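user: can you give me the structure for this one chain? tokens are fine.
assistant: on it. calling the predictor now.
[tool input]
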Amino acid sequence: IAAITGIIGVFATALLVAVISQKLELTRSERYVHNFVATIELAKAHKDQAANVLKYGWKVWYLRRKGKSNCIQYIQTQRKLLTSIHLARDIKQRQRKLADNYVSLLELFTVQRSTSAVTDETSQRVIVMEQKIDKVEDKLVEINQGMLNLEDKLNILLDRITKK
């Protein structure tokens, strides 16, 4: 009885986890919206950090030009510049990861399968068209032979008429 109860408990837990995970999974359209919003937020953050890099770079240049490269303000500004550069690189890396996650493996498989089906259908149509073109070429050869025979017969008739 304990073993059966344990097995039923494991199956019930597995079923519960499967149902909950399926309900929590985002649909395709929800994923696109989420990725769109995340892309916009990352782009805004990247612009902000790029502006900070310019601002602190300008301050470092200005303080160095004034000869204050040993003062505490110069060192703080330089630290802020390096932090901004690091954050900009980090944001850029997150943008790349987000771009990689736009398409799931299931969607990729679905697109590949539909592309394969369309390719097969197109190749079948090409084969049918080639067969039809071959038939048309054969008919044209027959028509050409018939025209040549007709021309020969007309020339023979014309020769007979001119000889009389």
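assistant: here you go. The chain has four helices and no strands. The longest helix spans residues 105-163.
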